[in-house]
């Protein structure tokens, strides 16, 4: 009812302008004359009325557009909420750039939580990009935020994610014609710095240690989640080595490594990370900024695919703390004026 009343009030100005034009045409003697000056004056009156109506409509549309953007921004922020700047002893920084104009997030997802088993992180990429993938992102992230605390091992987390994705696809595509899948990388960083992972078709992360940036690989990954059922046997996590004090772990989606410049050249992600490592020890925010700046300079515009970056740095001189809930802290998410923020 309030919305209807607001729309009725919004029609007041156009109705007044229209009534004034009609009154002038019917009641003003000058409007009845056919000589050139009178016709010019009548045209000027109707031109002024038309201009006023157009400006009023434009202002109304801009108000509604700003309101829709505020609502959409709040919804997207709640879905892919910024992680705290510190989680379980790790410095955290994250950023995302959607390939769809006007969207703050797209088909990429990430989350970091501190659990009693260690710090657990997920990085994923839904088939397709833009806001059309948000339903799948919500299903996967919602499940991870619960399963990361409930499941003792990463294999249990992955099976929960598979079931959640399967339910979502059955609801969205009852006819069973869905061709949607998600690449996923699950990482667990224990209190002593040991790293474990499960990979479903996702790029392996990089470790920044000393002055080197090395991609961590541990065999062939499983197929992307949703393409084929996971095996009924156990899903043992693979070791990725140790995250020592000062080391950083860089997770990303393939939109970063596949980004091209105007000449079709791929973004040199390994070289950029190598330079970031050689520049000396840096916080997660500093590493993220260096990579994001180089990426923005490389593509010089909107990317062809969604891009997500996540940096976890062991900033402690003692073993990592693994338990407890997510601590509070300032957001480490890329602000609107960051190098990776949509323009």
Structure, described:
The strands form two sheets. A six-stranded antiparallel beta sheet has the order 1-2-11-10-7-8. It is built from nine helices and eleven strands. Helix 2 packs antiparallel against helix 4, helix 5 (134-150) packs antiparallel against helix 6 (154-172) and helix 8 packs antiparallel against helix 9 (284-299). The chain has helices at residues 2-10, 12-27, 29-32, 36-79, 134-150, 154-172, 254-257, 269-278, 284-299; strands at residues 86-87, 90-97, 108-115, 118-126, 182-189, 194-200, 206-209, 212-215, 238-242, 248-252, 307-314. It folds into two domains: 2-73; 82-314, PPM-type phosphatase domain (Phosphatase 2c, domain 1), CATH 3.60.40. A hairpin with a 2-residue loop joins strand 3 and strand 4. The radius of gyration is 27 Å and the shape is elongated. The protein is an alpha+beta fold.
List the helices and strands and how they pair.
Elements: H1 2-10, H2 12-27, H3 29-32, H4 36-79, E1 86-87, E2 90-97, E3 108-115, E4 118-126, H5 134-150, H6 154-172, E5 182-189, E6 194-200, E7 206-209, E8 212-215, E9 238-242, E10 248-252, H7 254-257, H8 269-278, H9 284-299, E11 307-314
* CATH architecture assignment of the largest domain: 4-Layer Sandwich
Structural class: alpha+beta
Terminal Cα separation, in Å?
37 Å
Tell me the radius of gyration. Answer: 27 Å
Biggest β-sheet description: 6 strands, antiparallel
Tell me roughly what share of residues is in helical segments: 40-55%
**Shape designation:** elongated
In total, the number of domains comes to 2
The CATH superfamily of the largest domain bears the name: PPM-type phosphatase domain
Count of alpha/pi helices: 9
Number of strands: 11
Q: How are the strands ordered across the major sheet?
A: 1-2-11-10-7-8
Overall average pLDDT: 78
Q: Indicate the CATH class of the largest domain.
A: Alpha Beta
Q: Poorly predicted ranges (pLDDT <50, ≥5 residues)? A: 1-8, 322-339
CATH topology of the largest domain: Phosphatase 2c, domain 1
């Amino acid at each position: 009812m309030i919305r209807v009343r607001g729309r009725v009030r919004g029609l007041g100005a156009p109705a007044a302008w229209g009534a004034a034009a009609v009154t002038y045409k019917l009641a003003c003697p000058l409007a009845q004359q056919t000589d050139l000056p009178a016709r010019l004056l009548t045209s000027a009156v109707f031109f002024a009325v038309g201009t006023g109506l157009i400006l009023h409509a434009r202002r109304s549309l801009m108000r509604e557009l700003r309101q829709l953007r505020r609502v959409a921004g709040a919804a997207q922020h709640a879905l892919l909420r910024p992680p705290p700047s510190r989680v379980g002893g790790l410095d955290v920084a994250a950023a995302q750039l959607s390939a769809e104009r006007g969207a703050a997030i797209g088909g990429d997802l990430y989350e970091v939580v501190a659990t009693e088993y260690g710090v657990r992180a997920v990085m994923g990429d839904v088939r397709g990009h833009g806001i059309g993938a948000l339903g799948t992102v919500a299903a996967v992230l919602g499940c991870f935020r619960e399963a990361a605390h409930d499941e003792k091992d990463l294999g249990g987390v992955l099976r929960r994610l598979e079931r959640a994705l399967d339910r979502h696809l059955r609801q969205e595509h009852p006819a069973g014609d869905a061709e949607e899948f998600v690449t996923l990388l699950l990482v667990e960083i224990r209190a002593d710095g040991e790293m474990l992972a499960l990979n479903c078709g996702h790029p392996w992360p990089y470790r920044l240690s000393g002055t080197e940036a090395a991609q961590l690989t541990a065999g062939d990954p499983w197929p992307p989640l949703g393409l084929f059922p996971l095996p009924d046997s156990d899903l043992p996590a693979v070791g990725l080595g140790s995250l020592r004090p000062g080391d950083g772990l860089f997770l990303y989606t393939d939109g970063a490594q596949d980004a091209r410049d105007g000449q079709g050249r791929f973004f040199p992600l390994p070289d950029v990370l190598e330079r970031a490592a050689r520049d000396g020890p840096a916080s997660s925010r500093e590493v993220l900024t260096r990579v994001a700046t180089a990426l923005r300079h490389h593509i010089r515009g909107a990317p062809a695919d969604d891009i997500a970056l996540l940096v976890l740095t062991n900033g402690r001189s003692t073993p990592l703390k693994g338990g407890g809930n997510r601590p509070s802290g300032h957001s480490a998410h890329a602000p609107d004026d960051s190098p990776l923020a949509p323009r």
